[in-house]
Amino acid sequence: MDGALWIYLLLALTSAPPLVPNAALIASAGMLAQSGELDVWLVFLVVGGSALAGDALVYGLGRLAGGRVLRWLGRRPARRTALGWTTERINRHGVPFVVAMRFLPSGRLIGGLTAALVNYPLRRFLLGAGIAEAVWAGYSVALGYWGGAALDGVWTGALLGILVSLLVAGAAQLLSRATPSRARPTDHTS
C-alpha cells in the first residue's frame, strides 16, 4: 500500500472513535498536504467524514443499549443530573447544542448517547454533528497546513503541532479539574 494511503487510513481510524487524541496526526497531515505529499481536500474529507461516521455509530449504540445506559446513568445522582442537564438543553436548543457538544470534553460521546437516549431525531443529530465535524476538521487541518507554510519545514511544523496538541489537552484537563461540578438541588416539596 502506498505511504499516502496508509496516512489516510490512519486518519480515518483515529478520527472515527470519540476520545482518541489525534490532533498532532491531523496537523501533520495538513503539513504534508501543504508540502504536496497529500491532498488537502481529501485529508479534510477523510477526517471530517470519519468523525461524522463515528458520531453516527455512537448514536446507534445509544439506541441499541438505551435501557442499560439509562439504568447505569440512574445509579448515581451526578450522572442523573448530567443526563437531565444535557437532555434539557438538547431539547431546548436542538442542532446548535449538538454542534456545541462537539467542542466540550467527551462531548462527542455524551452528546451522541444523550441524543439517542432522548429520541432526538437522527437527521437533526447528523446535521448538527456534520456542521461540528466540518468546523473541527477544517481548523485542525488548516493548523497543520498553514503552520507548515509558515514554518517552512515539515519536522518543525510536526513538532509544533504535537506541542500545541499537548498544551491544549493539558489546559482542557486542568480546566475540567478546576471547574467544580454543580448538582441542582432537588425539590422536596412535592
Structure summarized in a few sentences:
The chain has 190 residues and is an all-alpha fold. It has helices at 3-15, 23-34, 40-64, 66-74, 77-93, 95-101, 107-117, 122-151, 154-178. The chain has one domain (30-175).
Give the topology, please.
Blueprint (H helix, E strand, L loop, with lengths): L2 H13 L7 H12 L5 H25 L1 H9 L2 H17 L1 H7 L5 H11 L4 H30 L2 H25 L12
Description:
The protein has 190 residues and is mainly α. The chain has one domain. It has nine helices and no strands. The protein has helices at residues 3-15, 23-34, 40-64, 66-74, 77-93, 95-101, 107-117, 122-151, 154-178. The longest helix is centred in the C-terminal third of the chain and has 30 residues, at 122-151. The chain is elongated. It starts with a helix and ends in a 12-residue tail after the last helix. The model is unreliable at 182-190 (pLDDT under 50).
* Assembly state: single chain
Terminal CA distance reads: 66 Å
Q: How many strand segments?
A: 0
Task: Flag low-confidence runs.
Answer: 182-190
Biggest β-sheet strands, sense, barrel: none
The sequence of SSEs as H and E is: HHHHHHHHH
Rg from alpha-carbon coordinates:
19 Å
% residues in beta strands: under 5%
**What is the residue-averaged pLDDT?**
83
By helix and strand content, what is the structural category? mainly alpha
In helices, the fraction of residues equals over 70%
Q: Based on CA inertia axes, which overall geometry fits?
A: elongated
Number of domains: 1
Our count of helices gives 9
Domain VTT: 20-145
Main location: membrane
Membrane topology: Multi-pass membrane protein
Family: Belongs to the DedA family.
